[in-house]
Design brief:
About 55% of the residues lie in helices and about 10% in strands. With about 450 residues, it is α/β, with parallel strands linked by helices. The structure holds adenosine-5'-diphosphate and magnesium ion.
């Protein structure tokens, strides 16, 4: 199954690629999977898709089965060292609910630039496996900025530097799935023991558990138990702890106790660096392809949404050029990537503007839409209104709606106010120039 579009690239790499077809007979397709958990998950989520895919490829399949086999799946869960095996109940590998690691997500392949240097340095520190200095490490940022990549890189490195540690990486969704399963099967004690027995716990996309009350509760207890034992925790989310809606206050405040690091949107240099690194990689795969000057610069300039899209564009470009046997020129890039280039043109959202402005003036994102009238909050809010009008195609009423349902006249007033002030206030003019540059990349 090579076409990944039906599940999305990430799911494809995580769940489908590791499957090994071991039997195809009498309408039964059997796949080998690395763990029971893995098999369960794929059965629940993808079995139907897999059946359809096989059928549409001409193989009639009535049933898809999964059996735990000898697949050399990327494993992070290291065996416990000898003295620890003396516990009353040893947890076997199959019980470990970690998600497989992507072998490509290493520190070596992570390009460091200004927007991610702090996150990278913190991840490196955790990967050394030394004494815990900040707990948790909380990584946040928009989609495709490298959170998952860094977490996998930590796991890979720890495997080598500290094979004695039990490292568990999973998404918050998988955490919930395991929890619900344990409840259903009345194995909650096993569940608790399992999660409390790891040395390093990494939970990806924790915003997922917002609003899911009992999962949150359990997560909170697991979190506290591990912190009390001085075990390292690494968490990622798409926004800062305080900005996650429907997450309990006590969890927010625990999450803020460690080191909270922001992966900023990429800048031009970082994007170019990532493209250059990818091209090195492709050169081996597509030997003989000629890449014209200026193409990478063009892509780094134009595709500013996220790294995943950037990578996808390059992959498509190389595949296309090699199929048609042409040199990769600017013209070819424009043709072949027209849809991506078009959609990244309208990239800037009011939400991003609000976030950047709030960050710049050190106020809360929620104050952007809230009612406070204090000058030190109202002014940044007006700046955000002004920039929303300038940098997005949104109308005043639309902007008003995104600023907590304000009237369009309020927005107009805000925009005018900033225009007026800018003329005499050089600090404000500088701020605006900086913000504009940050937002437009
Ligand atoms: P997130 O989890 O933040 O949504 P990912 O970690 O899945 O993002 O990254 C999306 C894609 O972009 C991955 O293929 C990842 O390897 C790549 N990527 C992101 N940042 C970098 C970087 N700094 N250097 C190299 N690749 C990167
Ligand atoms: Mg991710």
């Amino acid at each position: 199954m090579t076409n990944e579009s039906w599940v999305g690239k990430n799911n494809y790499v995580t769940w489908i690629e590791p499957l090994k077809l071991s039997l195809l007979q009498d309408g039964v397709a059997r796949f080998e999977v690395p763990t029971i958990f893995f098999g369960d998950w794929v059965q629940r989520n993808y079995a139907d898709h897999i059946r359809t895919q096989l059928s549409s490829a001409g193989t009639q399949v009535d049933r898809v089965e999964f059996s735990v086999g000898a697949v050399a799946a990327p494993r992070i869960q290291a065996e416990r060292p000898a003295p620890r095996a003396a516990r009353t109940r040893t947890v076997s590998d199959d019980d470990l609910p970690g998600a497989p690691l992507d072998q490509r997500f290493t520190f070596d392949s992570f390009v460091v630039g200004k927007p991610n240097e702090l996150a990278h340095a913190a991840a490196r520190r955790v990967a050394e496996g030394g004494p815990v200095t900040f707990n948790p490490l909380f990584l946040y940022g928009g989609v495709g900025l490298g959170k998952t990549h860094l977490m996998h890189a930590i796991a890979h490195d720890l495997q080598i530097s500290r094979p004695d540690l039990r490292v568990l990486y999973l998404s918050a969704e998988q955490f919930m799935y395991r929890f619900v399963q344990a409840l259903r099967e009345r194995q909650i004690m096993d569940f608790k023991e399992l999660f409390r027995s790891v040395d390093v716990l990494m939970v990806d996309d924790v915003q997922f558990i917002a609003g899911k009350d009992s999962t949150q509760e359990e997560f909170f207890h697991t979190f506290n138990a591990l912190v009390d034992q001085n075990k390292q925790i690494v968490i990622s989310a798409d926004r800062a702890p305080g900005e996650i809606k429907d997450l309990e206050e006590r969890i927010k405040s625990r999450l803020q106790c460690g080191l909270v690091v922001d992966l900023h949107p990429t800048d031009y240099e970082l994007r170019l660096g990532i493209l250059q690194q990818k091209v090195e990689h492709y050169r081996a795969q597509y030997s003989g392809l000629v890449l014209a000057d200026g193409v990478l610069e063009f892509l780094a300039h134009r595709i500013t949404t996220n790294v995943r899209v950037l990578e996808g564009a390059l992959t498509r470009l190389f595949a296309f050029a090699s199929l048609v046997g042409r040199e990769i020129t600017l013209d070819l890039a424009q043709d072949c990537l027209a849809d991506i280039l078009r959609s990244s043109d309208r990239k800037l959202t009011i939400e991003e503007i609000q976030r950047k402005v709030a960050e710049h003036y050190n106020i809360r994102l929620s104050d952007m839409i809230g009612p406070k009238r204090l000058r030190n909050i109202a002014r940044p809010r007006q700046v955000a209104m002004y920039l929303s009008k300038q940098l997005t195609p949104r109308s005043l009423p639309e902007i008003g709606r995104r600023f907590g349902g304000r009237d369009h006249t309020t927005i107009m007033h805000g925009v005018r106010k900033i225009e007026e002030l800018m003329a005499g206030d050089s600090q404000l003019a500088d701020d605006l120039q900086l913000l504009r540059r940050l937002l437009q990349g």
